[in-house]
């Protein structure tokens, strides 16, 4: 299993970014996938999840601003982030679902910094 995130960077408050996660080594379309983030000095925070059928869930902190999606033909997971806030600054990881509300593989992460 290999997960590679990309798309992070420095953005001003109110700006947008789209993160991507290229997946390989497993049947991507059959697993739920998540985005999880870790802010400086803090623990892991679950952000968004998408099931194999396409249903989604988002943490209250990002609801209405972030959208998770997937392209099963391209084995790619996305996170569209809008109206970014300084508190969204974190390393963002994509993670492969395992069992019920667990994850067994993670990418290396991509840094998102929201600052003026």
In short:
This protein is mostly beta strands and 116 residues long. The protein is built from no helices and 11 strands.
Low-confidence stretches: none
Portion in strands: over 45%
How can the largest sheet be summarized? Answer: 7 strands, mixed
Q: Provide the helix percentage.
A: under 10%
* Overall 3D shape: globular
- Number of separate strands: 11
Return Rg in Å.
13 Å
Helix count equals: 0
Briefly note the structural class of the backbone: mainly beta
Mean pLDDT over all positions: 97
Name the helix and strand elements from N-terminus to C-terminus, one letter apiece: EEEEEEEEEEE
Distance between the termini: 37 Å
Summarize the SSE layout with pairings:
Elements: E1 2-6, E2 9-11, E3 17-24, E4 33-38, E5 44-50, E6 56-58, E7 66-71, E8 76-81, E9 90-98, E10 102-106, E11 110-114
Parallel strand pairs: 2-11
Antiparallel strand pairs: 1-3, 3-8, 4-5, 4-9, 5-6, 7-8, 9-10, 9-11
Name the features:
116 residues; mainly beta; seven-stranded mixed β-sheet; four-stranded antiparallel β-sheet; 11 strands; globular
How would you describe the overall organization of this protein?
With 116 residues, this protein is an all-beta fold. 0% of the residues lie in helices and 54% in strands. The chain is built from no helices and eleven strands. The chain has strands spanning 2-6, 9-11, 17-24, 33-38, 44-50, 56-58, 66-71, 76-81, 90-98, 102-106, 110-114. Strands 2, 4, 5, 6, 9, 10 and 11 form a seven-stranded mixed β-sheet that branches. 32% of the residues are buried. The mean pLDDT is 97.
């Amino acid at each position: 299993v290999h997960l590679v995130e990309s798309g992070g960077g420095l953005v001003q408050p109110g700006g947008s970014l789209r993160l991507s996660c290229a997946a390989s080594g497993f049947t991507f379309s059959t697993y739920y996938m998540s985005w999880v983030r870790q802010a400086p000095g803090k623990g892991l925070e679950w952000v968004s999840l998408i099931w194999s059928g396409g249903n989604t869930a988002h943490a209250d902190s990002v609801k209405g601003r972030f959208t998770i999606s997937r392209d099963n033909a391209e084995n790619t997971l996305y996170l569209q982030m809008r109206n970014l806030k300084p508190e969204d600054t974190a390393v963002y990881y994509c993670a492969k679902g395992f069992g019920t509300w667990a994850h067994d593989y993670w990418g290396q992460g991509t840094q998102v910094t929201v600052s003026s």
